[in-house]
Each structure stands twice: as structure tokens, then as C-alpha cells.
Design brief:
Blueprint (H helix, E strand, L loop, with lengths): L1 E6 L1 H4 L5 E9 L5 E9 L34
């Protein structure tokens, strides 16, 4: 599945307009691969990330509400 968007410089504070493309691939080993591509007319930093979270439990009765997050930090 492929998604694309043109982000205007005034929308996201990039030096110029940026064309973005994100591709989600699922291979035969059931591994998810996410490919980010971007281009801009001016030199700019681009550091994409993904904040999607998946519940790999096949039991549909289990929700994410039973999950816990531990941060070992001050």
C-alpha cells in the first residue's frame, strides 16, 4: 500500500514544498516494512518516524487496554 502527499512549506515549516511517499509492505515472512521517500526543491532535513502500534494478539477479545508500558528512566 502506498500513500503520498505534497506538504506545502507554510504547513510544516519546511524550507520549500516537500513531496512525501510512504509504502507499507508485508512480505512472505509476515514482516512489515515501511519505506519513506521525500524530495524537496531546497536542501532540508527529513527524519521520518512511525507512531503506529499494533496488537499482535490474534484473540480479538483482548484489547490494548490490558497492555502496560514500562519506562526505565528518571
Amino acid at each position: 500500500m502506498k500513500f503520498s502527499k505534497v506538504v506545502k512549506s507554510d504547513e510544516d515549516m519546511f524550507p520549500d514544498n516537500m513531496s512525501l511517499e510512504i509504502t507499507y509492505l508485508l512480505n512472505n515472512e509476515y514482516e512489515l516494512e515501511i519505506i519513506f521517500k521525500a524530495s524537496s526543491d531546497k536542501i532540508t532535513l527529513f527524519n521520518p518516524t512511525n507512531h503506529a502500534y499494533f496488537n499482535p494478539d490474534l484473540n480479538q477479545d483482548n484489547s490494548i487496554l490490558n497492555h502496560y508500558l514500562t519506562l526505565n528512566a528518571d
